[in-house]
Amino acid sequence: MKKLFAALIAVLLSGLINLAQAQNEPNYLCFTAVGGDASFGMENNGFYDFPEIEFSYDRNNWEPMESGVYYSLNNSQKVYLRGENRKISHDYYGDQYTRFIMTGQIAASGSVMSLLDNGTGTLNEVSERDCFTKLFLDCTSLVQAPDLPAMSVSENGYHNMFNGCTSLTKAPEIPATDMNLLSCEAMFANCTSLVEGPSVLYASAPFCYEGMFSGCINLTKAPKLPNQWVSWGCCNAMFAGCTSLETAPELPAEYLADQCYSCMFNGCSSLKYVKVHFTDWNDANYSTKDYYYDSDKAGKGWLYNVAPKGTFVCPQNLNIDVDRNGDYIPDGWEIVYLEDLPNDDEPNYLCFTAVGG
Q1: Stretch 132-159: mean pLDDT, rounded?
Q2: Which residues pair with 71 in a beta bridge?
Q3: Using CA atoms in the order 257, 198, 243, 140, what is the torsion angle rounded to 10 degrees?
Q4: CA torsion sign, 67 to 69 to 72 to 76?
């Protein structure tokens, strides 16, 4: 009995040690060459200093990266990256940024935060403005994005981060519950192979999701949107030009800020189902606006150029006596009231019924 007890204690201690080691294991940003040989590097744009980034093929021997230099990866080979930086990019508006450069096909994994916290990958806040602006801009070789574990994202923190990554098919999860001005603006814009967005977005801030998926012509699965009050300009042009999107994400917010849905689905030519919960149009959101990404499209609204037939679901107390155009409810669409839909939240109890006596 004593031997059995000692064996159980030994197994338990071994498990606890392995768990502690796993928790302390560095979570490096990792690149893996897939489908053949590849190469990677970083280039600095502007006059700010190049960030301090190191790479290693074995996680033991580290070398500093230099701007504009490509480093080789054999097929299936991995490379790990780390750095101790306040931020990687500096000023989006002044075009001062640092981005990865790649050839071949590369799958990223691990935590992007390892570029800031010297490889632990556990830092949970993107605190500096413009931190990861354009980090993977036009990386057409990137087939898988890294993890983005931060719970708070600064102004412009993920701005244009994956813009033009035409080989990405699935967006990474974004668990952040605190967003700021323009945090995710154009984050996945022009990712023409992207099919699926993050499963859910949790936060709202002025213009934080503006143009986030604009030009993602193969997007069919949009993220679930926040339940809270949506902020000024929050979702402006968020899905503009997503020509494969047939069902809009449910819009659960009951009270809306100015321009929060302006141009949101502009040019979604396959869109045929929209479900909203707001009870006031707040014309600042829906009145004709200049299309943010194309000045030639001035004067188009949030549901301009969607499918000619569709279903618009709304509360009974929303005014539907409005112009049937892309600024409100598209002409040719059926209107269904929320109150007439089956209640999915109704409890489905096991029920016994006496019959015949």
Answers
A1: 97
A2: 40
A3: 120
A4: positive
b/e per residue 77-96 (b: at least 16 CB within 10 A): ebbbbbbebebbbbbbeeeb
Model confidence at 25: pLDDT above 80: yes
For residues 39-45, average pLDDT: 96
| Confidence grade of residue 259 (pLDDT, cut at 50, 70, 90) | confident
In angstroms, rounded to a whole number, what is the distance separating the alpha carbons of residues 288 and 304?
Answer: 10
Say how far apart CA 100 and CA 207 lie, in whole Å: 26
Q: How far apart are CA 328 and CA 55, in angstroms?
A: 52
Q: Which two tokens stand for residue 264?
A: 């949101």
Interatomic CA distance for residues 70 and 199, integer angstroms: 34
Length of the chain measured in residues: 357
pLDDT digits (tens, 9 = 90+) for 197-212: 999 999 999 999 999 9
